Amino acid sequence: MGDIKTHKDLKVYQKSFENGMAVFKLSKQFPAEERYSLTDQIRRSSRSVSGNLAEAWRKRRYTKSFIAKLSDAEGEAAETQTWLDYSLACNYIDKEEHDRIYREYDNLLGMIVNMINGSDKWTL
């Protein structure tokens, strides 16, 4: 943890931000009638992963709060995968796009779970 000064230095945060931006770019092609439903939901959940990771970092003095925020990030990442499934089922994205981003979220989920399971290494 020596080189990590802020949440932005965390690989998991950087990955979550990249994934959130990938979802944003992908969702730009969704039809206008989805603006207030699927588009908003997938953008919100994908961005919330990074937000919860930033909050977790600031709460690492308190193990339970740290883990709770990481759990929130985990839930938002899984929710994003669900919206990706809907996007594929509605033919807004193709299978290749879906599978690529879905795998990125699987990787991100693994990183978050590892932080939860090793929380003693991260908390103060």
Can you walk through the features of this model?
The protein has five helices and no strands. With 124 residues, the protein is mainly alpha-helical. It has one domain (11-122): Up-down Bundle (de novo design (two linked rop proteins)).
Summarize the structure.
With 124 residues, the chain is mostly helical. Helices cover 77% and strands 0% of the residues. The longest helix has 27 residues, at 63-89.
Q: What keyword list fits this structure?
A:
124 residues; 5 helices
Using DSSP, what is the number of strands?
0
CATH topology: de novo design (two linked rop proteins)
Reported for the largest beta sheet, the result is: none
Mean pLDDT rating: 96
Terminus-to-terminus distance: 11 Å
The CATH level-2 architecture is identified as: Up-down Bundle
Name of the CATH homologous superfamily: 23S rRNA-intervening sequence
Q: Label the overall shape.
A: elongated
Using only CA atoms, what is the Rg? Answer: 15 Å
Helix fraction by DSSP (H/I, runs of at least 4)? over 70%
Low-confidence stretches: none
Please tell me the total number of domains: 1
Helix/strand/pairing category: mainly alpha
Tell me the layout of helices and strands.
Layout: H1 11-27, H2 35-58, H3 63-89, H4 95-117, H5 119-122
